[in-house]
Amino acid sequence: MSILLRWRMSLGPASVLISTLLPLDADVALLRSRGEPPMYELVPMPATAEDEHGAASVVHTTSSLGPRAIWDSARASLSVRAAADQISGEGLLHLAYLVLENRLQHAGYVTLHAAGACWADRGVLLLGSAGAGKTTTLLRLCRDHAAAMVGNDLVLVGGPRDVPVALTGSRHVRLRQASVAQLMPDLLGLFPGTVTDSWRAKRTLHPARLGIRLATGPARIQVTVFVHVDPGYSKLVDEPGDDLIHRLNLHENAVRYIRGGSTPWLADGKFGPYVPPMDDPAAHAGRVATMERLLKRSRYIAGPPAAVAEHIAALASGQREAPALDQ
Question: At what angle are helices 281-296 and 89-106 packed, to 10 degrees?
């Protein structure tokens, strides 16, 4: 007889109760074994525990009627109907994170594709498209300027105060061979053998493998940097970061997880059913407030990798003032 398992997924001020037949602890262990430990905490709920009043929830049931996802915004509840071969535990955890993101945005926190570093409680948030140099700059800040790593790839930022905080982030480093070859050739030894596609060739490492410390607490974001590193630049560029393109890019980044339909439900490598958006006015308000606070202290910084990292470290430490920071 199958036993319904109950779990609490929590991150920062938000939590989601998950009910399912799937052994989610095994899937979290698999993520950890791949060097990709999740940001959230997942703990089993006692069978005798009462439901938490008003808590967000994900309820997974099996059915022969075909997969389906129904979002109840009033109750912050996602109902997932799928047979065992139509969704994996890892897939269900991903759907649950969409609900968790809704709760986080209600509290003013946003999960961004970004990198974050800090010196004690003074932090910097690095934004940019794929290949812009977020990871490269993060590694230089940590290895050359004694910063600790808040997160790489994903960073949870925001909060109710005027100065947003980087609360936590994904605690692994994913290196692309093409970027390493151009910007960090001293790390090419991490890619042994012949690489036929340098853009898709990646390594996932624990930060300790690179001599990087992990942050032990939240960090106040001193500067948000839209970064672009390029050895071909003859000099450093430092300009206000709050322009139309960066606003649109930040918005697209900030709704990536709450806009459920943007992330397909994948089962056995195939596209699954429609996942409804999980946005609402309260989440929008929390998200916008955080984006405005991030943009208020944002810069666009471009140039050679070492110069970019040195400049950002000086800005974050207060040793150097950014020009026209209030524009």
Answer: 70
Which of 228, 235, 225, 220 lies closest to 299 in space, CA to CA?
Answer: 225
Q: Considering only residues 288 and 263, tell me which one the structure prediction assigns the higher pLDDT.
A: 288
Q: What is the DSSP string of 181-198?
A: HHH-GGGGGGS-S--S-T
Instruction: State the number of CA atoms in the 13 A half-sphere of 90 facing the CB.
Output: 15
**DSSP track, 116-159:** EEEETTEEEEEE-STTSSHHHHHHHHHHHS-PEEEEEEEEEEE-
Q: What is the DSSP letter of 309?
A: H
Burial profile 209-226: b = 16 or more Cβ within 10 angstroms, e = fewer: ebebeebeebbbbbbbbb
CB 92 within 8 A of CB 265: no
Contact 13, 2 (CB under 8 A): no
pTM for this structure? 0.90
Task: Answer yes or no: is pLDDT of 179 > 60.
Answer: yes
Contact criterion met (CB below 8 Å) for 168 and 150: yes
Which of 28-42, 86-100, 113-127, 308-322 is the least confident region? 308-322
Provide the pLDDT for residue 188: 86
Per-position DSSP letters for 214-241, written without gaps between them: BP-S-EEEEEEEEEEE-TT-SS-EEEE-
CA distances from 205 to 131, 227, 266, 275 (A): 18, 22, 26, 32
